[in-house]
Design brief:
Blueprint lengths: L17 H20 L5 H28 L5 H40 L35 H24 L3 H33 L6 H33 L9 H26 L1
Helix pairs in contact: 1-2, 3-6, 3-7, 4-5, 4-7, 5-6, 6-7
Length: about 280
């Protein structure tokens, strides 16, 4: 159905194969991962094919949406639907991280004191409510908590600075100063990449010199799950901004029509806020 037949002017795209293609690839990835974890021969290739197919589908799907947008087919109603969609997506990410912060809170504030309480001394006579926890009877090798200095603090400064540079770039887009917007956006991406590099260095130090691993009890599990998933989101955010940068260089976006930039910026600022919570709750408390 074409947009010209819509009296409201709301653009409705033609029938698309991309939703079915994406769903098929995701199912292939799920089966491939499940079979691979159960040592089924060659199952990893099914996972790989599904992943490559999914990435290709996204590339084609987003490419069509971009062409529609740059072709003037997206009006204010479509723009509003995009904003609501991105808002709900970020809200789902908030709930995702809330579950891990909740696990950290429960382990430290409720589980440790309760296991060390008098009524549990029969079951766990030698349990100590110390953080990082070594488990009942010292089943887990003792590890040292990660120090907030220097790498986590430097990374905090990097992400806060990247939020500032991204805001400057956004204001430049709204003022139609394309060269300035490109420069500050590129600097934002560079700060994000440097953050990931330093986090990788921190992980290497934790594994090789401190003995802190994902298997190091509740502390190791919550530390690597929180920081690892956050790092993955930094990677996703940097990827989004890189696509926006490429589009900006080739001439896309106008001062009053640049939601792709805004959506990626919202996501990046969300990642910044999560890191601030993580920095305080994981590294300092």
């Amino acid at each position: 159905m074409s947009s010209s037949s819509q009296p409201s002017g709301y653009f409705i795209p033609s029938p698309s194969p991309f939703p079915v293609m994406a769903a098929t690839c995701l199912v292939a990835m799920a089966f491939g991962a499940g079979l691979w974890f159960n040592d089924v021969p060659h199952a990893q290739w099914l996972l790989l094919v599904g992943l490559l197919g999914f990435l290709t589908t996204l590339y084609k799907w987003f490419g069509r949406a971009i062409a529609e947008s740059e072709g003037g087919m997206h009006n204010q109603a479509v723009d509003s639907s995009f904003r609501w969609s991105m808002s709900w997506f970020i809200f789902s990410e908030v709930m995702f991280f809330a579950s891990f912060f909740g696990a950290l809170y429960y382990a430290r504030v409720w589980a440790l004191p309760d296991l060390a309480a008098l009524h549990n001394q029969v079951l766990w006579p030698h349990f100590q409510a110390a953080w990082p926890s070594v488990g009942p009877g010292g089943l887990i090798p003792a590890v040292q908590a990660m120090d907030p200095w220097p790498i986590p603090t430097i990374n905090t400064a990097l992400l806060l600075s990247s939020g500032l540079t991204l805001t400057i770039s956004h204001h430049a887009v709204r003022a139609d100063h394309r060269g300035k917007a490109i420069f500050w956006l590129a600097l934002t991406i560079a700060l994000g990449v440097l953050f990931l590099f330093l986090q990788g260095f921190e992980y290497h130090h934790a594994y090789t010199e401190m003995g802190l691993k994902l298997s190091s009890g509740i502390y190791g599990a919550t530390f690597f799950m929180l920081t690892g998933f956050h790092g993955f989101h930094v990677f996703l955010g940097a990827t989004m901004l890189s696509v926006v940068l490429y589009r900006m260089i080739r001439g896309d976006f106008k001062a009053d029509h640049h939601f792709a930039f805004e959506g990626a910026a919202w996501y990046w600022h969300f990642v910044d806020v999560v890191w601030l919570l993580l920095y305080v709750l994981v590294y300092w408390l």
